[in-house]
Structures are given as C-alpha cells and as structure tokens.
Amino acid sequence: MDAFTDTFVEEITVMAASQVGKTEAMYNMLGYIIDQDPGPTLIVLPRESDAKSISYKRVLPMVEDSSVLREHLPKIMDDITKLEYSLDRMILYFSSSNSPADLASRPIRYLFLDEVDKYPRFSGREADPIKLAQERQKTFWNRKTIKVSTPTTKEGYIYREYERSDKSRFYVPCPFCGKYQVLVFPQVKWPKEETSAEKIKNERLAWYECLYCAKHIPDYHKNKMMLNGQWVPEGAEIDEQGVIKGNVARSKHRGFWISSLYSPWLTWSDIAAEFLKSKDYPELLMNFVNSWLADIWQENLGKTKPEEVSVLALPYPKGIVPVGVRVLTAGVDVQKGHFYLSIRGWGAHQESWLILATRVEDWDDVIDILFKTHYPSEQVGVAPFPVRLTCIDTGYRTDEVYEVCRAWRDIARPVKGQAYLSGGVFRVTHIDKFPSTGHAIAEGLSLWHIDTSYFKDKITRLVKNTKLEAPGGWHLHKDPPEEYLKQFCAEHKVILRDKKTGKAREEWQLVSNHMKSHFFDTECYSVAAAEMIRVFAITEEQGKRIYNPQVEEQSNLRITSNWLPRKSDWLRGYR
Q1: What are phi and psi of 71, to 5 degrees?
Q2: Which domains does the chain have, with CATH numbers?
Q3: For 346-356, what is each residue's pLDDT tens digit?
C-alpha cells in the first residue's frame, strides 16, 4: 500500500500465500483511489462469475460501509451494476480474464489483476490477458498496475512478473540474536519422534529455529517480529539495527513475496501439521507449496532428459518385483510388424517400479509375457505376481487387438488415446452390439478412450518429484535399455495456436520427427491401467499382496451410449 502511493512506482506484483491479506490490501488501494486520486479503473478476475461476486459482495459493501467512500456513490443507484460503477468522479469496471472485448475496449488508469495464475494463457485471438489489459493504460502517464496471486508453476504469470520486479522479501529480527532473516519452512521444527499432525497442532509442539543462533522461537514472539520487519529488495542487505544497505536502483516495478509463515492467524504448529498431512500426496503437497509457502511447484513438464530418467534406476534386476509392489499393470504399443510393451509394479501412494520394457515381434510373445508369466518377487516367501491389467493400443491391427482382448478379457483392454478428453480421463464405447437393435451386448467388448495428455503429464510429474524422496516415486530397474530412455524422453509439451480462432492449447509432440516414443506410450497405457483399477487407493495399512478392487467401480468414468449395470442373466428375458 505504501508502494501504491509512491508516484515513482508504476507496477506492483504480490506473490503471496492464500489468506495473508493481499486481496484486502488491493481493496484498500481501491478505496484510496475513489476518495483521494480518482481515475478510470479496471479490476480483472479469472471468471465473470468471480467479477460479479467480488463487485456485489466485497467492493460495494466496502463503499457503502465507509462514510467517506459512501459520499462518492451516484445519486441514482441504477448507475451501479454488477460489472460497472459510475461514481461521482470516476468509473470502475469489473471484467473476467477470458473476455477480450472487455479488456481492450476502455482507456483505464488503474489496473487491478487478481489471482492472475488462474487466467487463461491467451484471450481468443488476442495476446495474453495481462498484456491486453495493460495496453489500455498507454495514454496515462500516472498509470498503475497491481498484480496479486498465489503462485503455481515457474511458467505461471505471477512468478514471471515477480522475477521482473525488484523482488522484495520481508526480513524479521530474531528476538534473541537480533539478526534479520527471511522466514523459510525448513526452519520450522518439531520433535523428531512425533509424526501425528493433529498432536503437533493441538499441543503446539513446533517452533521456529533461528537461522543464525539456532534458538527456538515460540509463537508468542511472532507479532513483535512482524512489527519490526523490513521489506528488502534483492541485492540489498539489512543489518541488526534494521538499516537497509546496498546500492540498489530504485525500481518502478515493486515486487513483494510473503508466505503463510508470516501470517498472524497461523502458528508454527499449524504449518507443520499441514505439511505432515500433505507430504505423502503430490496433489496436496502442491497445494501446500503454492498456497502456504507461496512457492512455485516445479514440474518442468515436457523437459525430461534421458540422463534425468536414468538416475531413477534402482539395483533390482529386470523381471523381478521389488518389495513394496502390490499389483502389476502393463501397456502395449502395437506397430505394423512388432510390439513394444512395458510392465510396471505399483505400491502405496502411487509409487511404481519398472519390471520390464521390451520389443517383441509377434502376438505369441505378447501373450506369453503378459498373460502367461508370473514375475518373481525379491521378497522371500511371496508368490510370483501376474499382470493384473493390460491396456493395448488399437492404432494398428485393430481387429487383432480386439480378438486378443476378447480371449483375455479379464486382464486386457483395448484403448485409444486422445490428446484431450472432455468429461473425465476415460470414456467407454461398446464394440460388440446386437445387429438387429444396435444395443450393446452385456458381456461384449468395450473400447476405452483415454486422455493421453493427462497421463503423460502425470508421468512427467512423478518423474520430477521422485528426487524429493517422497512417496509417489517413479523407479526403473537397473541398467534400463538405452532405447527405453531415448523413447521415454522423445516428446515434449508445446503451445499451439489455432490459425482461425487464435485460441491456444498445450500439446505433447515429438521433439524431432525422426524420434520414436513407443515406450513413453506404453508407460502411458500402463498408468491408465493402474488408474482403471484404482491403485491410488492403495495405502500402507493394506496387505502386502495384490490390491484387487472391483474394476467396474470407476469414479472418473463416463460411459457413452445406452448402458445398464452388468447383472448376471439380465438379458435372459430379452432373448
């Protein structure tokens, strides 16, 4: 807010955790504009519903409840709509980020961009919504742009904008040694022997350890530390007296970063408990990193290199099932004259191990490897593992694939990959139907359409996160084939734009036309098979043997055509 009233500053970027007051500060700036320095203003939200909600539930009550701001309301309240306020000395617009017309149609002096990482990358035929809105400010020499958001990934808007700023961070003094420091999560400590998140939270067992003197800083010191804190731009230093030193050029673009560790409403134990609840689940851990630590989630999708994958190899040999595996799935990529296949073992929290990746020349080899072979466990006394489910691509030799899947219907499913699939990650269509009516045969064969973009994103995320030594790792057997490594890394993600509409989309493509990605495809099918049998439901508390839930119980499945639940002899009366 101080930066906002600085006439030298043109842009303000706030990369912050959720619920630390960043949006409230933005509304305070808006109140200052209305009363002290009016000018045409635009507030951009991710969706139109967000814009209308903020307009009527946050901004209008703020204006009406303030005796000073209330004086600037129009005499005729018809001048106040959900998306436009005609005040006595200025006009205030609300817009969504996916409305190019609203972003480009009006000259504005003040631009507020809220939750920018939820904006689309492009707005129709136009440039990205941030640049599109900023174009409206060109005629104002005293313009100001405010961008606030929790971060997502390195490619997100807020991180890119923060990197362009002076990158200020909030330094607070240790109550014991007096040295200023940025609060970081690794310094939040709790008893090593304590693993219960609820106990740590309820009994307030966590503390903050000073980076310099290693003293334990309890919660009751936090407020005093905050009151004595200082915003320090990158490149500058702060001494024990709180004096900022360094020849740092004054910036027109101020950037501020702050995490939940600074929140007066959270204790160290609240934050420690949230981490313990999230650490074993990638989706929850991503939320913790983004929304609590205000840090980026580094997935680096589409940039996997063979050397990065090779380091995931563990000492177990191919064809052997490591300890921790509960079930095997497989994927087959069918070519005109040969086949690529891979088998993967799955354990708790979606941790997986490559069992076998190979090329074979005929169906007999495929059937022998996937349906007739049981793979020995390295754990003594455990029976060999069969493959629980295989997904076979139908791109080539489709009729042959169907016949094999009919013969091995309990453990094989034909699949067809699609770059993006609406309505879920799977869709099922029936292959076997009655000729007379076109109705699906109850026990007939079905084709599973799968969202390959979803599964390739998931594989890449698991690979990148394995180095964090957290559950959900992606492992290879020792000495994985060089061809496997090359093909596994043969695709990357690119942004494509439709020439007619200008809309952008992300798509997995080959890095080079001469490269092949068959093993990447087999792993995609294997992960799809794992999702079909719900391996994500495996927990440490379950038995050490194969997890075998009811395959038909799919929470993310959308069935097409007139489909009825399978029941024994349900067609007897029809026949």
Answers
A1: -65, -20
A2: 306-559 (3.30.420)
A3: 998 889 999 99
